[in-house]
Amino acid sequence: MSKSMFDYTKMILNKVSFDPVLFCKEVQKAVSRLLPHEIEELRNFILRIALQKPELKQSLIYLD
Q1: CA 64/CA 18 separation, integer angstroms
Q2: For residue 53, what are the contacts with CB-CB under 8 A and spacing of at least 6?
Q3: What are phi and psi for residue 29, nearest 5 degrees?
Q4: Rounded distance, CA 64 to CA 35, Å?
Q5: How far apart are CA 47 and CA 42, in angstroms?
């Protein structure tokens, strides 16, 4: 996928970050769409968000 898919994924995750369940569902979708190196970038992105919203850190289990 292109970089724009990764950017789109980040935008969606930012919008649904209010709901940990929805956030996890979107992370699962993203894993099926993104390239391996983009998944690593996604991991870093989630870690940054989780600093302010620790309840989102649980979504990292979908990246393994």
Answers
A1: 23
A2: 17
A3: -60, -45
A4: 14
A5: 9
pLDDT tens, 1-45? 456 899 999 999 999 999 999 999 999 999 999 999 999 999 999
**Which residue carries 């979504």 as its tokens?**
59
pLDDT digits (tens, 9 = 90+) for 39-62: 999 999 999 999 999 999 999 999
Global pTM?
Answer: 0.89
Sign (positive or negative) of CA dihedral 45, 20, 11, 54: negative
Nearest to 31 by CA among 22, 49, 19, 43: 43
Cα-based distances in Å from 55 to 16, 27, 46: 13, 14, 11
